[in-house]
């Protein structure tokens, strides 16, 4: 069974290809075009179909999440498909015209695609409660599903109040002057660590008419009313208290909904999975994991970029009866060839030499910054060691250098860190690991201070020996410094998506304050090291 899976319309589009339940190739459009949240799925589709590993003539099934770019797929009964999914059908089975022939097609409801991806990361465990929570889906802003006898069952629609879903984060960001971009929520959430929940703010937010989610005129009146109150002044201190209050309300609302649906036995709480963009909220994720005393499944590409695999996973497991295989997060594109790296390096006037772990560890130990690009990139918004900027978390000023100067991000935004599994276990005995950097942990005083948020926490990625290059580099770095972690932040210049190719990396950073570039088995000394 060969399946082409698309997220064809809206932001964060992309395409994936499965063969016999195995994810063979996937790519997010923005990595090819270098336009954040790019909607031009046709670019990704052409790229995927051009890969040698993709059997374009043998595709048996096309899966696509809603909304659908109908001109790309040419589905003859598109109106009927949208009518059925809008009425609550999990999917609509039809045909589409592409690749010069008619191919069977499954149109998957937006929320269901999110849920399938989350269920996949939960291993389709019986009884798993799946909460899909986002700014806006096709039918809902939040939905509850349950895995029952291997199938997804839609349990509840819009169980969360306005302050418990992505609309609320967008609204708070807009109220505080951050604009309407899909990236706003991440910027806004970081403010909460600097503030404290305020009872006055909470009271006023709770008093907002729930119809604010569905009535634009009402939403604007509410915004104007709140903006005029001193508690909602956009100044940093006031804004941080607003966000801290909203975060507490958001986390509480999610917990209350899950409380009504999770299974409880003498052995504890049953399996839980989170999908949709709100599953990137590490404060809520961490609080829920502590509350329920168990790990929670969260896909690393839980936002709309996840649809490029979610639609295919649903079609395989729920329509075709094929059990999809687990897949690594490192499946975005196909990596860089040695020839492409050498050409990109020569183009910017630098020189490549063979990779030397000791030299790279030495650069980091001396306070240098290393750009690491190896193999296929990560699916989703988190850099997890394949497209990462690395730095020592014990060198004073490193956070400012990497975040504010190199990436030109807001000064208050924190950086994550990566550490080997055994070091994490020693620091946090009995706690679940975090391979996708989706949970926060309180850092002991003096441990990785430049990766420590103002509230004492850090978003940690845990790494096993299977990722041998970065794992070995962490070992060598600790041997030189005694420091058990490295700062790990995404490899992208200001306002750009994560770099995909060696040329992208060098376009963003060749003549900046990066000391060393690593491209698989090659490394390149940057201007800062000369």
UniProtKB/TrEMBL annotation:
SUPFAM superfamilies: Actin-like ATPase domain (SSF53067). Residues 6-62, 104-312 form the Carbamoyltransferase domain. It comes from Streptomyces atrovirens. Residues 362-525 form the Carbamoyltransferase C-terminal domain. Pfam families: Carbam_trans_C, Carbam_trans_N. CDD domains: ASKHA_NBD_NodU_CmcH-like_N. This is Carbamoyltransferase C-terminal domain-containing protein. Belongs to the NodU/CmcH family. It comes from the Bacteria. Gene3D superfamilies: 3.30.420.40, Carbamoyltransferase, C-terminal domain (3.90.870.20).
């Amino acid at each position: 069974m060969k399946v082409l899976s698309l997220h064809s319309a809206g932001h964060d589009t992309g395409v994936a290809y499965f063969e016999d339940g195995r994810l063979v190739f996937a790519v997010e459009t923005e990595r090819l075009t270098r336009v954040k949240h790019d909607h031009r799925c046709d670019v990704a589709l052409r790229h995927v179909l051009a890969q040698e590993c993709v059997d374009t003539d043998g595709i048996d099934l096309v899966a696509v999440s809603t909304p659908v770019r109908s001109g790309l797929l040419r589905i003859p009964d598109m109106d009927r498909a949208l009518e059925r999914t809008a009425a609550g059908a999990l999917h609509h089975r039809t045909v589409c015209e592409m690749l010069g022939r008619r191919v069977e097609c499954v149109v998957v409801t937006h929320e269901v695609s999110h849920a399938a991806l989350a269920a996949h990361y939960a291993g389709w465990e019986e009884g798993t409660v799946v909460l899909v929570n986002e700014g806006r889906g096709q039918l809902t802003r939040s939905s509850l599903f349950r895995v029952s006898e291997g199938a997804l069952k839609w349990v509840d629609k819009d169980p969360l109040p306005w302050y418990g879903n992505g609309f609320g984060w967008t609204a708070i960001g807009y109220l505080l002057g951050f604009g309407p971009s899909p990236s706003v929520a991440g910027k806004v959430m970081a403010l909460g660590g600097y503030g404290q929940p305020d009872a006055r703010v909470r009271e006023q937010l709770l008093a907002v008419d729930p119809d604010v989610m569905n009535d634009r005129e009402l939403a604007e009146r509410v915004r104007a009313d709140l903006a005029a109150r001193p508690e909602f002044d956009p100044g940093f201190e006031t804004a941080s208290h607003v966000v801290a209050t909203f975060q507490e309300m958001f986390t509480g609302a999610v917990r209350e909904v899950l409380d009504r649906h999770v299974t409880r036995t003498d052995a504890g709480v049953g399996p839980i999975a989170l999908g949709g963009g709100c599953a990137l909220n590490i404060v809520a994720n961490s609080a829920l994991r502590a509350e329920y005393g168990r790990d929670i499944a969260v896909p690393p590409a839980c936002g709309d970029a996840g649809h490029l695999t979610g639609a295919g996973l649903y079609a395989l497991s729920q329509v075709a009866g094929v059990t999809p295989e687990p897949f690594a997060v490192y499946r975005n594109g196909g990596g860089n060839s040695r020839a492409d790296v050498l050409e990109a390096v020569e183009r910017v006037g630098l020189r490549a030499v063979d990779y030397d772990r000791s030299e790279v560890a030495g650069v980091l130990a001396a306070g240098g910054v290393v750009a690491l690009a190896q193999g296929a990139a990560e699916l989703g918004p988190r850099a997890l060691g394949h497209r990462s900027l690395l730095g020592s978390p014990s060198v004073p000023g490193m956070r400012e250098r990497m975040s504010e100067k190199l990436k030109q991000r807001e000064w208050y935004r924190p950086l994550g860190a990566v550490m080997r599994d055994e070091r994490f276990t020693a620091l946090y005995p009995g706690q679940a690991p975090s391979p996708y950097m989706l949970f926060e942990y309180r850092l002991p005083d003096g441990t990785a201070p430049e990766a420590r948020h103002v509230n004492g926490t850090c978003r940690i990625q845990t790494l096993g020996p299977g990722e041998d290059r970065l794992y070995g580099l962490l070992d060598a770095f600790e041997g030189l410094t005694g420091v058990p972690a490295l700062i790990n932040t995404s490899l992208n210049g200001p306002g750009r998506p994560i770099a995909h190719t060696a040329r992208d990396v060098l376009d963003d950073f060749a003549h900046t304050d990066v000391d060393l570039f690593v491209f698989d088995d090659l490394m390149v000394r940057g201007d800062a090291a000369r």
